[in-house]
Amino acid sequence: MYITCLDLEGVLVPEIWIAFAEESGIPELKRTTRDEPDYDKLMKWRLGILKEHGLGLKEIQATIAKIDPMPGAKEFLDELRSLSQTIIISDTFAQFAGPLMEKLGLPTIFCNSLEVAPSGEITGYKMRCEKSKLTTVKALQSIGFETIAGGDSFNDLGMIQASKFGFLFRSTEQIKKDYPDLPAFEEYADLMKFLKECLAK
Q1: What's the pTM value of the predicted model, to 2 decimals?
Q2: Could you read off the pLDDT of 122-131 as tens digits, one per residue?
């Protein structure tokens, strides 16, 4: 029995931090896991910038409220969920993901949580577990599931490579070049065709 594990940002919805960088006029916040493999380093750097500019959860959530799934993403996810158990495994945070999950039809998501002061300042974050994406697919495999996994960034590579079938979706040219053995897709229709072939095996 298969479970399909998908990344969220860059695969089903636009990158939250890039949208917030554009909304806030702080270009440094455009840096994502496509650019920085060390998630802890990236998040500490982001929180430092937020503190410096006096920005908190309320401002980020106001930006998220305006974000819609990528064109075709909900239809793709609906079809996939009719064919396979599907879990979104993301390094985003529950406080960010809620409104986006509603727009995607409330799929199951495993993500992390922010530590927020009464003032709204984001003071820290709590990862669900170490190497959460890889750890999750390994746990699913340990209870009898085969996994299919895909994403677009450095932090997705562990779960992709550990799965029976793995793929990249709308990834960077550098990641595609560094991992030429991984099937890479740009369109949901092509990805769905690949997933149907995987699920038939």
Answers
A1: 0.93
A2: 999 999 998 9
SS3 state at 6: strand
Is 102 marked active-site?
no
> What's the CATH code of the domain at 161?
3.40.50.1000
What stretches of 22-140 adopt beta strand conformation (E)? 85-93, 108-116, 122-126
Q: What is the pLDDT of residues 29-48, one digit of tens each?
A: 999 888 888 888 999 999 99
Tell me how many domains the chain contains.
1
Residues written for the chain = 201
How many CA within 13 A on the CB side of residue 170? 15
User: What's the CA gap between 75 and 39, in Å, rounded?
Assistant: 30
> Which residue of the set 9, 15, 91, 156 is catalytic?
9
Is residue 35 flagged as an active site residue? no
